[in-house]
UniProtKB/TrEMBL annotation, chains A, B:
GO MF term set: monooxygenase activity; oxidoreductase activity, acting on paired donors, with incorporation or reduction of molecular oxygen
Chain ranges of the Luciferase-like domain: 25-387
Organism: Brevibacillus nitrificans
InterPro entries: Diverse_substr_monoxygenases, Luciferase-like_dom, Luciferase-like_sf, NTA_MOA
Pfam families in the cross-refs: Bac_luciferase
UniProt superkingdom: Bacteria
Name under which the protein is recorded: LLM class flavin-dependent oxidoreductase
Family classification: Belongs to the NtaA/SnaA/DszA monooxygenase family.
Length: 443, 443
């Protein structure tokens, strides 16, 4: 029986030992497992027991110095997700891949392959990467500027779509008798010539179960929002307050309509960092325990990276030097995060130390400590207020934070009838209710 | 107890429904399974039951028109091998990756990740790709010439080695107490600036079990042999006769010595296409049956591709027009294969039809039909005559050709004491007896 009631979507954002920067220092953390496939397979299986839509991994093409004080996401996304696909059946698998440092032909193949291997569970978090340090790993001197990256990104997505479309559903004839394997008339070259790419095509992998992986986007800058509205089916976003989230939600859905898209075809998932306790006090204790494990030298370094200004030169308990920061347009990379930090510091008049603590738990994402009922209340409120179609779950400490959420919060959401008790579909598109035809129509 | 006796190595070269171009038309073939992960997982598990060193997959970044008449290798190598890693324990996993159309930073990450996921079973078949059709999928007009490709390839390998070496074995401190995760003093940037690449490094994945995947090479041109002698630990090669194989074997091992390498550290594995029958007649019937399934239009097309001359303009039963072919130096791509075909046609004075049939079963690789004892005799003879350290097994029809080999030929090799009855090591390097230190010493 098909559910008609609007359902909340949950994506698990997997980050080594958890999203709190100090999570690896916690007694329950297993930082030695950061390169162990079994560790990630188990997390995915737990999320699948929780009937979540998908798991997702960030990916960077550089090693930050901050590895000194924390576990940096490791392992390459496609190999990791493919090994996870082999031990799961339903959960979606979303890989991050950058349009700035990849070739469309390779990316189209990888997603087609992952989609075949997983039976239609692939998702693509489209990023444009950040920082000159990445550029220098790819024979370039500096990172492309914000606008140019998005232009290239848009073209990149167009090319890979053409490649995924190069095979029709009935291109494979496989007639042993006549000796015809494929119908060349039903395989179309991409024949793309643009400003950034020229790709003849066709793809050398037949059409995969979903045709396109689910397209995911997380940029929250102006360029990022336009990109998401035009192309994305899932949007990850950082939202601190219900009001801001409602405004963002309306903004992106309106922009999507401008591109001729239905608002239902784009799902907005704010990041959410839960501390789950049997009592509110226990939940708060869990949060405090992790915050106390933060290394202050590390916090200063991260804040300096985000604000692109050396914060170690200012007193830790003095105000954030807002007047001495670069302007947002000078920021290479995550402009939206920069703006978020600046707004937070200004609004709450924070010291440097306070800003570090406020962002340590998840880089500015919405954090909430409470009982399962309190957490479900918050999620339901956001969901019903037009602030979210679901959440990008970012447990501060893994695997225990995920276990707690799955065993305690999810049954509460299910009792309220806003979250599935069983998977109804097989593909990630079916879980999310987004269809590839709607992406085609708009072109 | 460690074996000291020299052992024969076997690599399974997996090719969709088999290496015979018409294999997919055979009643026992399952061409619908070419994008099914279960199909490949089962093949790998069978090879693992046969205690083979590794499985290997070719990979191309373009779709040839010949897909009309045959199953072209499909699925992307890393996603495929990673999903296979998840259901196997010991067998090596060798992926093909081109140095012409990739970035070293990505390739270094992928292999490090696959090596972690598989517990040290990764191998890298280093290729430089072929043909302008590939170039046109990567925003280039034409393929780089032979020499330039190998120059770039050499530099590429140097960069990825530096990246794999950027982490020492004890770079990870993981001291929860002090909050030190990694020792920055023990992570070294690649700091590479060459003609083709400039890569700052370091890698963002800690040192993997094998440090480097086993390096494999298959070029048999002059440039290819030098490249192999300098860098490869396993060489796949096309050899028709015992004499040629002995000469090639000695040639590559001598060249390796020139680079200060031990001859034992480079394993030569000629391709071998077995038709296994309980009687010799049955084996020959199997071969004839497949040859009769060949589509002649397809054979002409493939031959035209290899010879880079349109063969459809010549009479099928007339001689191969040797005088009208381009010279080997004009061939873009597989020069060694071109030379092999020309030599074969000249030596045996073949018609076009005859040359097509001779190469249909495996693109010129050594083919042998016989009983398990006869096959073991041939393999043993090559192995003991200094023609081979083992073989790159290319079953003409899959999975049955592999099943036959594993259940009938392998026990025969084991009885002769030249092939393992159980894995002794865990990593592909241990299976092959090649060590990463010897690669380091020579630099």
């Amino acid at each position: 029986m098909s559910q008609t009631k609007r359902q909340l979507h949950l994506n698990l954002f997997i980050m080594s030992t958890g999203h709190h920067e100090a999570s690896w220092r916690h007694p329950d953390a297993s930082p030695h497992m950061a390169t162990s496939i079994e560790y990630y397979q188990k997390l995915a299986q737990t999320a699948e027991r929780g009937k979540m839509d998908s798991i997702f991994l960030a990916e960077k093409y550089r090693l930050p110095k901050s590895i000194q004080h924390r576990v940096i996401p490791q392992m390459e996304a496609f190999t990791l997700l493919s090994a996870i696909a082999a031990v799961t059946k339903r959960i979606g698998l979303t890989a991050t891949a950058s349009t700035t440092y990849n070739e469309p032909y390779h990316i189209a193949r990888k997603f087609a392959s992952l989609d075949h291997i997983s039976g239609g569970r692939a998702g693509w978090n489209i990023v444009t990467s950040t920082g000159d340090a990445t550029a220098r790993n790819f024979s370039r001197e500096e990172h492309m500027d914000h606008r140019a990256r998005y232009d290239r990104g848009r073209e990149f997505v167009e090319v890979v779509k053409r490649l995924w479309d190069s095979w029709q559903e009935d291109s494979l004839v496989i007639d042993k008798e006549s000796g015809i394997y494929a119908d060349l008339g039903k395989i179309q070259a991409a024949d793309f010539k643009g400003e950034h790419f020229s790709v003849r095509g066709a793809l050398n992998i037949p059409r995969s179960p979903q045709t396109y992986p689910v397209l995911v986007q997380a940029g929250s800058s102006e360029d990022g929002k336009e990109f998401a509205a035009e192309l994305a089916e899932v949007v990850f976003t950082v939202q601190h307050t219900l009001e801001d989230a409602i405004a963002f939600y309306a903004d992106v859905k309106n922009r999507a309509r401008k591109y001729g898209r239905s608002a239902e075809q784009i799902k907005i998932l704010p990041g959410f960092i839960p501390y789950v306790g049997d009592t509110e006090a226990e939940a708060r204790d869990k949060e405090r325990e992790l915050n106390e494990l933060s290394v202050s030298a590390y916090g200063i370094q991260c804040l300096s990276d985000t604000l692109q200004k050396d914060m170690s030169k200012y007193p830790l308990d003095g105000p954030v030097p807002l007047d001495e920061l670069p302007s947002v347009h000078e920021i290479k990379g995550q402009q939206a995060r920069f703006q978020l930090y600046v707004d937070l510091a200004r609004r709450e008049n924070l010291t440097i130390r306070e800003l570090i603590i406020r962002t340590a738990g998840g880089r500015g994402h919405f954090t909430f400590a409470g009982t399962p009922v309190q957490i479900a209340d918050v999620l339901e409120k956001w969901f019903r207020s037009g602030a979210a179609d679901g959440f990008n779950l970012m447990p501060p400490l893994l695997p225990v934070g995920l276990d707690d959420f799955v065993t305690k919060v999810i049954p509460e959401l299910q009792n309220r009838g806003i979250y599935r008790t069983e998977y109804e579909g097989r593909t990630l598109r079916e879980h999310l209710g987004v269809d590839v035809e709607s992406l085609h129509q708009k072109v």
